[in-house]
Amino acid sequence: MSTATALSVANPTEVYTETETEVVTPPVVQSATSEPWWVRWILIAVSVSFLLFFLFIPLAAVFAEALRKGLGTYVSSLRDPNAWSAIQLTVITALIAVPTNLVFGLAAAWSIAKFEFPGKSLLITLIDIPFAISPVVSGLIYVLMFGAQSSLGPWLSSHGIQIIFAVPGIVLATIFVTFPFVARELIPLMQEQGTEEEQAAISLGASGWQTFWRVTLPNVKWALLYGVILSNARAMGEFGAVSVVSGHIRGKTNTMPLHVEILYNEYNFVAAFAVASLLALLALVTLALKSLVEWQMHRQSLETSPSEEA
Amino acid sequence: MSVEVRSIEKSFGSFQALSDVNLSIQAGELIALLGPSGSGKTTLLRIMAGLEAPDRGSVHFQSHDVTHRPVGARRVGFVFQHYALFRHMTVFENVAFPLRVRPRSSRPSAKVIRERVDELLGLVQLGGLASRFPSQLSGGQRQRVALARALAVEPEVLLLDEPFGALDAQVRQELRTWLRALQRKIEMTTILVTHDQEEALEVADRIVVMNKGRIEQVGTPEEVFHQPTGEFVMKFLGQVNVFHGRVQNGQASFADISFDYPGYPHDVEREARVYMRPHELDIKRSPEGMPSLGARIERINPAGPSAKVRLRTDHGQEVLVELNLDRFRQLGLTAGEQVYVVAKAARIYVPKSDPEYMI
Questions:
Q1: What are B's interface residues with A at a Cβ cutoff of 8 A?
Q2: Residue B267: strand, helix, or coil
Q3: What is the pLDDT along chain B (359 residues), one digit of tens a residue?
């Protein structure tokens, strides 16, 4: 077969003959490269039923539980002032954390992928820290830094600045745990793309800013969006780190995940599941967006991969 | 526009990429920087473009010192080895890019941009492909888009880094001829980097042969090929047979052959190397009293414009002889035959290790 491929370049007739022979070959019952049908079916059945029991049914249960006492109760439990404030706080936190990480992530990825500097590998490792350590510890870091017992604590309180058990703490903890998403998504792509296009843009008279907006950013836009979506999902769903710094003040420092826990502990199942259903909905929307972006990225990589030299 | 580089030095870490490079290029010339990889030719090109800063020395365009002028302000058209086309832009947008990024005050109107891009695409014969993406083009087409885009900056100098490196032989040949014609037409000072001696010999007005960060020789293709000033140039441009021999008292000798060599009249014997191009050798059935080398034919390749005969001398050294086809047919050689190799011309280099005997 390899001989035929080699010949195909030099001699098209040879290829034709080869194709013809292949057509004549009687169809084989079992292909050499795939499993027998029953193995395939068992594998598929196992994975489908696993997904059903562990993912789909629990997800359905969330919505079923939330709507158990009717749509009216569902809506009113979401309109409860404390629930409403938790929703607002979650959205505000995400609105601050996600754009911040977009900018920082882009800057970090840019500097790592396009420049050589001492300590670069250390920076790459540092970016992964939020993924590597437990979210509870991430929260504790901020308590230790800004809490009443910390060295900064007295100064902060004397100036009337409250970070821990307040919104700033929640935002800081969220930024910390979601930092790696954008950077991690961009670094490999930017490294692969190299700096030649940027050099070309500069040599064609573009300024640094123009190069960024017209060349660098369009080349990474789908990966960037992908990172933003994942980052947003985590920002809205984060529990551990936020729980440590929040102080659980109802109507003030409760985010949606924290509020769900409180309601659940109070046996207020319908309200708990109603808020949880919003988080589940967010997850579904995230998944849909993620698939859409993945599809776009795939398309872009097909479009930009070098075709055969002619 | 004329280009001049003076005493350029450049090193990357401990690697000396360029040392004391001086070069002067006339307006409208097509210059090839030729050398093996690591010879510094691309670094020199990038320094002229302003993509790299020299450690020492200066770059002059016409009479202006542009050493510290950034690449975007030098009005150079730089074509990258792998084209560096903007992958997310169409061919049209790629070529329009240099016009669109101009400062608002000098930016042409949309209509002018369209006309200019169409004109450039026509110049590189890609008129019908304006709406394609780079990935939908062949290598040769991408190369021409890159060229059109570089020309859109209205450059004074065109700099091409291995412009045909990634193309296959046929396209390379066509594009080379085409580029030569285009350069004649637009009369732009053009400097291209290549490691392919055949390409340099065919395309360039003058060739700059580089080795280990230094310029070995600058000259017309004819000069560097027929009057190489050093062993490196001799070896790098075309195939060559090398024999180790000696010089003494105005005589050179290698293998069993000796001949007059007035260039070395000293009586201290020194090692020397004798270079003979394959086409400067002939094959004879009998020595006929001429200084010759006995050899056995190992392989004959008569395909191409000349026949290449590979022999092994009685001393065990390989020799390549190129005969024109008439001569080859007249001789009727067969592999395994014992013959005699006669030199029509030879060059002798005495290594310059001892300054007292420098040639």
A1: 49-51, 70-73, 76, 78, 80, 82, 84-88, 97-98, 101-102, 133-141, 149-150, 152-153, 166-168, 171
A2: coil
A3: 899 999 999 999 899 999 999 999 999 999 999 999 889 999 999 999 999 999 999 999 998 999 999 998 888 999 998 889 999 999 999 999 999 999 988 899 999 999 999 999 998 888 889 999 999 999 889 989 999 999 999 899 999 999 888 788 888 888 888 889 989 888 899 999 999 888 899 999 999 999 999 999 999 999 998 888 888 998 888 888 998 888 888 888 887 788 788 878 888 888 888 888 999 898 988 877 777 888 999 999 988 889 999 999 888 889 999 998 888 888 888 888 899 998 888 888 887 654 444 33
pLDDT tens digit string along A205-262?
999 899 999 999 999 988 898 899 999 999 999 998 999 888 888 878 889 999 999 9
Burial class for A46, CB neighbours closer than 10 Å (0-12, 13-18, 19+)? exposed
Contacts of A240 (CB under 8 A, 6+ apart): A134, A135, A136, A138, A139
- Tokens, residue A56: 């789909």
Query: What is the distance in angstroms between the Cα of B189 and the nearest Cα belonging to chain A?
Result: 17
**CB count in 10 Å sphere of residue B54:** 23
Cβ–Cβ gap B72/A199 under 8 Å: no
Residues linked to residue B251 through DSSP beta bridges, in sequence order: B248, B260
Calpha distance A99→A120 (Å, rounded): 24
Q: Rounded to an integer, what distance in angstroms lies between the CA atom of residue B263 and that of residue B269? A: 13
* Predicted-complex ipTM score: 0.80
Annotate B223-245 with three-state secondary structure. Answer: HHHHCCCCHHHHHHCCCCEEEEE
Half-sphere exposure of B172 (CA within 13 A, CB side): 14
Residues of A in contact with B76 (CB under 8 A): 203
Q: A167-193 and A217-237 helices cross at what angle (nearest 10)?
A: 150
How does strand B56-61 pair with strand B3-12?
A: antiparallel
Contacts of B166 in chain A (CB under 8 A): 309
Instruction: Please tell me which residue of chain A has the smallest CA distance to B85.
Output: A197
Q: What residues in B contact A298, CB-CB < 8 Å?
A: none
Contact A205 B101 (CB under 8 A): yes
User: Which chain A positions have a beta carbon within 8 Å of B73's beta carbon?
Assistant: 205
Closest-CA residue of A relative to B87 is A304
